[in-house]
Amino acid sequence: MRETLLLLGFLGLIVSTLWWPRPVLRTAGGLLLGGLVAVFVAPAHGLLAACLGGAPVALLAGWWLPGRVHRRVCFMVLTLGLLVYVTTLLMFLAPGNPFRQEKQANEQVEAALREKYGVPEDATAFFGVYMQRLLTEGSLGPSIKNQGRTVAELILPAFPVSLALGMTALVIATGLGLWLGVRAGLRPGSVADQGSMALAMVGISLPNFVIGSLLVMGFALELGWLPVAGWGGYRHLVLPALTLALPYAAYIARLARGGTIEVMQQDFIRTARAKGLSERAVVLKHALKGAILPVVSFLGPAAAGIFTGSFVVENLFGIPGMGQWFVKSAINRDYSVVLGAALIYCSLLTVFNLLVDMAYAWLDPRIRETL
Amino acid sequence: MSAAPASTSSLPEAGTSLGADAWRRMRRNRVAMAGLVVLVLVSLACFLLPPLMGMDPQAVDARRGAQPPGGEHLLGTDTLGRDYLARVLVGGQTSLLVGLVATLVCVLIGTLYGATAGYYGGRVDELMMRFVDFLYGIPYMFLVVLIMLLFEDEARGNPLPVFLALGAVQWLSMARIVRGQVLALRHQEFVLAARLTGASDTRIILRHILPNVLGIVIIYATLTVPAVIILESFLSFLGLGVDLSWGRLVAEAVAVINPIRSYGWLLLWPSLALALTLFSLNFVGDGLRDAFDPRSRR
Amino acid sequence: MHPAPSRAEPVLEVKGLTTEFVTDGGVVRAVDGVSFSLGRGEVLGLVGESGCGKSVTNLSILGLLPRPQGRVVAGEVRFGGRDLLQASEAEMRAVRGNRIAMVFQDPMTCLNPYLTVEEQLAEVGQLHLRLSRASAVERAVSLLTRVGIPDAALRIRAYPHQFSGGMRQRVMIAMALLCDPDVLVADEPTTALDVTIQAQILDLLADLRRERGMAVILVTHDLGVVAGCCDRVVVMYAGRVVEEAATGPLFAQPMHPYTQALLASVPRLSGAAHGRLASIGGLPPRLDRGPFRACAFLPRCSQRRAACEAGEPALQGRGTGRWSRCVLQPGELA
Questions:
Q1: Nearest CA-CA distance, residue B21 and chain C, Å
Q2: pLDDT tens digits for range B20-69
Q3: H or E element, residue B237
Q4: Which of A123, A298, B26, C194 could bridge to A92 as Cys pair (CB 3.0-4.6 Å)?
Q5: Can you give the pTM of this predicted structure?
Q6: Is C103 helix (H, G, I), strand (E, B) or coil?
């Protein structure tokens, strides 16, 4: 009951940022940004330094940044908070807990362990403990299942691995997809078009672990060109990144094709031709921007899909990334590791989404004013 | 072609409804029709063959472990000596069922949500769609993994939780599409007419508006089925899904791959079944979309 | 009214232009044997219902038909001593936007929403006049000022959506005039605009024509526009020319029943309370059923004769500069 109310309150707060008046937004946005700085500074340099660092940032940000950035910041911070809460709730609802799974645990031992790791029986109380630790100490807490290790120790080394894999895949997916899609869209019905779309259909219709297994059997087992699995060096990156990228490349190709066809039918393309521009100039200067807009708006979901899709690919290729930790810890009910991984993934994606929105506004001047 | 007096045929042929017209175009799309046939065949094979031929996906033939296809076991056996044909067919039941039922859940939630938002418009619409935007921002794999944890004990052998979990995360696009359509429809005269006769909002939504968005809902539902099947196979692959599905079979096959023996057929058959089904579904979905909206093709 | 155009030496001559489209339902002959000539400095009105082939005629002249569906199957377009239909793509590009420029119907969709007006105007000067970017912009600003855009030097940096419809059409006209073209093709330039704006744009076009001495093809379905602006009129129906005449005589004595019907459907203030406006019953014929066995207008014509069924009438001379595609002599028309 209390959880439901809290959940609804949280949701209402997030959704209401849409209608917050300017001054409220500015204040809240400035405070949140300053607070973020303080959280990062506090553990290393003490509370005084945190206040000294956070206050000017809050003031400057509240003063200088445009309103829509404030709105975004409020939305993002609150969303992350809600995400942590929902994750906590779901984990506590799931059968079992990290202590009871150990066979010898009796009730006293469990109580002692709960005390030691800061895990109360109640989800909301745990959320309180977790957030307090996060905000005052800037710490993700200790891992429950990996004794003596903190979550940061476990996850942070895995973060660059997942990031490298995800970014490579994203670049491959976007590059390949745009190239195939725009080419196809310029000549609908041609051989190039039908070939690209057949390829895209394969990419969409095969789950990535099937593609991955086939790639491994071909390039690693049969040809021996690339390592089967593991991590270290760019040669280990090729197959997993490709596996992760291909379905999204296929999707992007279809979107880019649709966008290109749509744009090429627009009146302003006819105007551009009537000016005497070469076909090349018509496409590159007048059509391309509009053609890739649908792709740009898909980049947010694509990034989410690719970064979390690495759950499967990391598993398949035995890559020591964050996805492995997330799934393993979720199954083991290692609450703090799951929350830490979720927090990092979602921060990454929110920042990425902000960049995508900015790119979209840069591409489409009509959006700029409404954002 | 003889030149008819030009005027007699200047009006479009009467009596071809939108649906009939679309079906005519669909029938001309050979790839889509082939997809439809394949789908029917795959479904029939998965649901009729095992009971008719008394196949048991769990029966262990201990002397014949990891047999390549051929002989007594048409598709070979897995490493424990279970008949692979039976396992692929029964696994297909789960995958197809998950795809179908999760899509129904998704259609139900998405259509009602989208229709409500679009019909009432204004603040209600803004609030509801803002919530959808918010959910869009959350990587759905997180949610699915977490939701699956809730049902961990029950999930074995009972695919219902999977349906729920997958339907619960897939309805967002459906809601957006339906809302857009309804937003355009709600100011049309026939809705006004219905309102003038005193029909309630619920009745207008259910009887007058939803039938008009049915076409697009069907199209996107067809494209949702493969997405759900893929998602289910991810979960199975991670060990979170149901006991026996195509995704689980692929995962088992990948687990036994090693440089010396790759047991290729173990990977081949479920992958092939999965690919064939998903191909067909996507082709049918694309075909339907082209048939209902000829503009999108060119 | 206007200085008498010189008929001696046409700047553009279209002969027997025939254009077809390949569609799902078969081949549609959208333009069938259209001929006309355009004198230097002349304003020629191209009139007819929607779908009668006016726009397709213009797109064919400039080689801008949508490909691969549309293609010119016969005819000749004489311009600058050669046949544009035979010209290479590179030669056509040198003509388009330079010697023959075009203004389209809907200024809302014809300007690129993703580029500033400066970008879209300057590229024409850079391309055809080989101007530097700076002087291309300078030229663009002076033309924008000429077409009546206030603060042009500032406004040129705006995007199309920041202009009103009338202003956008002015931008389109400035864009078309950047290279001082010999021929301006204006395809329904005022149809998408408010009535008051329409008059302003038409006045602007008339002024600019007088200043620069360019010839104009004015496509319209609005006979009021024709009466006010054009020297000569070509009436099109179902992809063919059905009547051609100087503006005055055409309005005074139309020689084709279709032209008559068009004129009758224009509301007149002086006509007092006639009750209803005349409208033309029925729809234009389908163009995908091969050649016509009778007059294309026959099913809708109020003055049918037996002779009309005999076959499609040819375009016949009716005195100097007058042509009509009707079996009836002027005296026989109601």
A1: 14
A2: 777 777 788 788 888 889 889 988 888 887 777 777 777 666 666 666 66
A3: helix B210-237
A4: A123
A5: 0.79
A6: strand
d(CA C68, CA B87): 51
pLDDT at C114 over 70: yes
B294 pLDDT band, cuts 50/70/90, is low
pLDDT at res. B79: 67
Shortest Cα distance, chain A CAs vs residue C148, angstroms:
21
Return the DSSP state at C96. Answer: B
Q: Which amino acid is at A158?
A: A
- Min distance C268 CA to chain B CA atoms (Å): 30
For chain C, the straight-line distance linking the first and the last C-alpha, in angstroms and rounded, comes to: 30
Q: Which of B95, B131, B142 to mutate to test the interface with A (most CBs of A within 10 A)?
A: B142
Which residue in B has a C-alpha nearest to residue A328's C-alpha?
Answer: B238
Question: Quick one: DSSP state of residue B207?
Answer: I
Residues of chain C contacting A259 with CB distance shorter than 8 Å? none
Q: Is C97 in contact with A274 (Cβ distance < 8 A)?
A: yes
**Residues C53, C284: contact at Cβ < 8 Å?**
no
Nearest CA in chain A to B132: A15
Tokens for C176? 């078309």
B-chain CB neighbours of A71 within 8 Å are none
**Which of C27, C289, C300 is the best residue to mutate to test the B interface, defined by the most B CB atoms within 10 Å of its own CB?**
C289
Per the CB < 8 A criterion, the answer to whether C116 and C156 are in contact is yes
Type of residue found at C317: G
Q: Please enumerate residues of B whose Cβ is less than 8 A from a Cβ of C.
A: 1-11
Of C13, C76, C7, nearest in space to C39 by CA: C7
Q: Is the pLDDT of residue B8 over 70?
A: no
Alpha-carbon separation of residue C240 from A33, C16, C55, C285, C294 (angstroms) = 70, 10, 13, 12, 13
More confident call, C248 vs A297? C248
Q: How far apart are CA B100 and CA B107, in angstroms?
A: 10
Distance CA C45, CA C102 (A): 15
Q: How far apart are CA A224 and CA A209, in angstroms?
A: 19
The residues pairing with A150 across neighbouring beta strands, listed in sequence order, are: A142
Residue B204 DSSP label: I
- Name the neighbours of C, counting chains with at least 3 Cβ pairs within 8 A: A, B
Q: ipTM of this model? A: 0.84
Closest residue in C to A366 (Cα) is: C161
Say which residue the tokens 């002989």 belong to: B71
Matching residue, tokens 């500033």: C116
Q: Which amino acid is at B270?
A: P
| Furthest CA-CA distance within chain B | 80
Q: CB-side exposure of C223: number of CA atoms within 13 Å?
A: 19
Residue in C117, C126, C202, C196 with CA at minimum distance from that of residue C163: C117
Note the pLDDT of residue A4.
85
Asked if B5 lies within 8 A of C299 by C-beta distance, the reply is yes
Flag whether residue C113 sits within 8 Å of chain A, measured between CB atoms.
Answer: yes
Which tens digit of pLDDT belongs to each residue from A128-164?
888 888 777 777 778 777 777 877 788 888 888 888 8
Decide if C124 touches A, using CB distance below 8 A: yes
**Exposed / middle / buried, residue A139 (Cβ in 10 Å: 0-12, 13-18, 19+):** middle
Task: Let me know if C50 is exposed, middle or buried by CB neighbors in 10 A (0-12, 13-18, 19+).
Answer: exposed
Query: C128 touching A, CB under 8 A?
Result: yes
Asked if A345 and B282 come within 8 Å (Cβ–Cβ), the reply is no
Give the whole-angstrom CA distance, residue B157 versus residue B152.
11
Query: Using an 8 Å Cβ cutoff, are C26 and C211 in contact?
Result: no
Residues of A in contact with B257 (CB under 8 A): 213, 216-217, 221
> Which residues contact residue A37 at a Cβ distance below 8 angstroms, ignoring those fewer than 6 apart?
A50, A53, A54, A57
* Minimal-distance CA residue of chain A relative to C178: A275
Q: What is the pLDDT of residue B201?
A: 83
Nearest CA in chain C to A190: C68
